[in-house]
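Acyl-CoA dehydrogenase: structure, please.
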Amino acid sequence: MDTRLTAEQDEIRRTLRELLHKRCGPEELRAALDAPAGHDPALWSALADRLGLPGLALPERYGGIGCPVTELALACEETGRALAPTPLLATAVLVAPLVLALGTEAQRAGLLPRLASGTLTAALAVPGTGLATALALTGDNGDFSAGGGRAGGVQARRAADGWLLYGQADQVLDGHSAGLLLVAAHTGGFARARTRLFLVPGDAPGVVRVRQTALDATRPQARVQLRDVHAELLGEEDTEVLPALAGLGGSVAAVLACEAVGAADRALERTVEYVGQREQFGRPIGSFQAVKHRLAEVYVAVQAARSAAYYAAWATAQESEGAARSASLEGRRREAGGTAGGLALAQALEALRLAAAEGIQLHGGIGFTWEHDAHLYFKRAAGDELLFGPPHRLRERAAEAAGLFGRGEVAV
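Here you go.
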């Protein structure tokens, strides 16, 4: 692995950081969180039109740039630094790869260019709190089911003109504003019943979407209700969904790890700036040995998490390139998702929580106020742990995938 960034990667990071510094400062961030969409549409247009972020990892034949997932992860490190509320994660990291991997050629040609240009945003609707399980981040998703009927979740049934979906998904990232919903539904009651993915326009008749109050306001969530909604099956009738979701887990974890590292690094920077200015007993509090030791621990944790996140992004890109020449695509990607990506995400989430907690403590009284941004970083750490973790489950899954525990043994 070559840890040096290429000239193109450096340019992506530099340009994106400059843009976010101008367009996503503290005031702009608060205004975006209060907007109906939960993000600034003008910032999203700038990210899409000027930098092409939504199509960064999509093939050129579908309007993308054709970069590996490494570049997308580095871009998300910068959006994580600014806690930028954008549909990038939901659209480019969760939905677009699934459409690319599972969709028919007509579906790819019709959807991917619009997703790559940012004119169409998308959201992955997984019922309940099962997103981490569906992506095989916290456990094998072989037994995952989208549910349905009285058990909750979303049920799919055949109709004369296609499929009808009925049910509810409660924690859909950017689900209230997405133009396209990719819904996981269970085809129970039929032969070969299983979980499948369906395409649903966000404004389709029978779709009710309500933005939820989330712990992390920078990552908007919605409750999506489907009441006999007409849907289009993603892919062919025999498309296997669960292996594809498990294969996606590695790249999602790597991107999230880089995003968390960016947030942790910025939280540390803000704290270092503050302790260099705040004086006590006639000297900056940053000159006290106890404060130096605490910040040194955070620095080591952030740098270690960055190394793990970069390796995970590189390894995921290498697995994807190798899988293109291998018949064992899903098996290779499932293993990658359960090891490097999950371990990197666990380490990054812990580093972010540590950096945010120390930032609040060392900012003193103002660190606990709603007006200060310190709490936003802590909520990002806690919110990501609820959605994609917690870290000990991520590590347990990685150990299980690596075969460290025999059948019947329990990881502690």
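Notes: The CA atoms of residues 322 and 329 lie 8 Å apart.
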